[in-house]
């Protein structure tokens, strides 16, 4: 391939992006294997003198990693299932049914994407308190679903509009009901954008802290981000253990992304081009 200045600039830009994206992960991994003295020395690029692998053992045990991991998986799994189920049905109705006010409904969901999470904390507290829902996982799951539905509906409806209606018409002529068409035809076709919605929802919920800190006070119900505070006391902070816990907390997200990266890319491109 003939080298040109334009190609060189493109490769340079890609190289800069790769370095800026990978460096924080590499830095965090090295951070997790250092002592407090090495971390506080300010030598960010220095390798650990002695690799402190015991930081991971301490993070697992003292940070109650398994307990917080189970809580995070429970909240995330329930939210994901309900978001996919509800958003796919709503997106199908908006994109396929010729109903009055369909565009207005879609506009309402789009506006929902612009509402900041912090502005809903006090109203939700007022709603959940008389219902005795505070300090339960449902006080997290319900708001998470509400905040993730707009972007999920936006992605799925854009993709569903690109599906030829002839497929559904032929199935309808053969006697298939709307529910059968949705379950057997539409859902299998929309797997790529569904994977995109899954990873976006997963990352958002897995790392969410503000709402969890507001509505959850019981230690047995707390999610993974709270494990960091196990290494913070009144007079000292174990930064190496915190780094190890952060690596262990980020590992499921990184693993999920690499497993689904191909489907995610296809889903985002399909939603952007066909929507």
Compact description:
The protein has 275 residues and is mainly α. The protein is built from 12 helices and no strands. Mean pLDDT is 84; it is low at 271-275.
Please explain how this structure is put together:
The structure is a single chain. This protein has 275 residues and is mainly alpha-helical. It has helices at residues 5-31, 36-40, 54-62, 65-96, 102-112, 121-128, 138-160, 165-173, 178-189, 191-206, 210-215, 239-274. The chain has one domain (54-274): MetI-like (MetI-like fold), CATH 1.10.3720. Helix 3 crosses helix 12, helix 5 (102-112) crosses helix 7 (138-160) and helix 10 packs antiparallel against helix 12 (239-274). The longest helix has 36 residues, at 239-274.
Question: Mind sketching the topology for me?
Answer:
Elements: H1 5-31, H2 36-40, H3 54-62, H4 65-96, H5 102-112, H6 121-128, H7 138-160, H8 165-173, H9 178-189, H10 191-206, H11 210-215, H12 239-274
Helix pairs in contact: 1-12, 3-12, 4-7, 4-10, 5-7, 7-10, 7-12, 10-12
CATH class wording? Mainly Alpha
- What is the count of distinct domains? 1
Helix content: over 70%
Strand content: under 5%
CATH architecture: Orthogonal Bundle
Radius of gyration over all CA atoms, rounded:
23 Å
CATH superfamily: MetI-like
Give the number of helices.
Answer: 12
**Cα distance spanning the termini:** 35 Å
User: Stretches where pLDDT falls below 50 for ≥5 residues?
Assistant: 271-275
| Structure class | mainly alpha
Count of strand segments: 0
> From N to C, what is the helix and strand string?
HHHHHHHHHHHH
Overall 3D shape: globular
Q: Biggest sheet, in brief?
A: none
CATH topology: MetI-like fold
What's the average pLDDT?
A: 84
